[in-house]
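Hey,

Quick one before I head out. I ran the complex with iron/sulfur cluster overnight. Inputs first:
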Amino acid sequence: MENVLIGHSFRIPRYYLDLIDFKDPCCPIKGQAVPSLMEAQKSGHDDPLNEAEFSVTPILIRRHPDRCVFLVSSECAMYCRFCNRRRFAGKAFDPEPYIEESLSYIESDARIREVILSGGDPLMLDPDKLRSILSRLRSMKRQLTIRLSTRLPVVYPEGLTAGHLKAIKDASPVWVIIHINHPREITRQFLKKIDSLRKCGASMVSQTVLLRNINDCPHILLSLFESLIETGIKPYYLFQLDDVSGASHFKVRLSRGREIMTFLQLNASGLAMPRYALDIPGGLGKIPVDPEHVQFLEKTTTVRLTSPAGKTGYYNDDAEESRCMKCGRCREDG
Ligand code: SF4
């Protein structure tokens, strides 16, 4: 287990720990939070999207001329076992010395129209620090689109304080992207914080990672996306897992992902439909997982990808077969 933990930090808030059903060997909450020996398998990369190559400061990633990802915190309330930014999240690295340099970089290039606060989790920052970053972005001469990507309301709702909410309200409009993967993560405490975010003017969308034996079931994802719509959160992206080290056991075959999307198209409201996409190194951007952009090659697990801009790349679709979750819904349908 020690070797497993060297690969990626370990932390579970009491709140999320209490959501685990220890009697259920397939508990999707436990699967996301508790390290497994499978993490020691050698596969993937610590930096699966080659973000370091696109970094213009140690905490500012620019893969596109018009937007950048600003890694303002290296801490998360919980370290998800499938995290694709494990090279940074949970590592002993203080972004503080690079914040001003990064803000100056953003200010100096008028082509940058959008800034995505990420990490780690930006809501792990002290509220005063968050406020100073947001107000500095807002005080720039041009109107920036500000996105804030967080999992805090899902794994540690009490960590979202009145100070954070005020900082978001004062920087309005702010798009908050909630990373949520399973309907069991929608609790009374989560809903209360979503309500507070809405009241402070945040526009909310969600992103979900498709995870083997956690949520690779059409009924589970239908339930998640419809519940999100009911709470006023638009499902935005369903992501194929990046080729990150120590997480290959979470990878879902693209064909399974497509099956799930087909089921959703037939059964979900259009509003509840996310985009299903994958990302690979090489700056191709997010590639829609559909027949136009993903081509399965014969007698190999390699898949050819064509980006919307016409660039070509390859992805190894070597995931193990999904096993059905124990919700019983498929049997009811059958
Ligand atoms: S919250 Fe995001 S950055 Fe943090 S461990 Fe989870 S996936 Fe990684």
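Residues 76, 79-80, 83, 85, 89, 119-121, 151, 179 surround iron/sulfur cluster (CB under 6 Å).

Talk tomorrow,
K.
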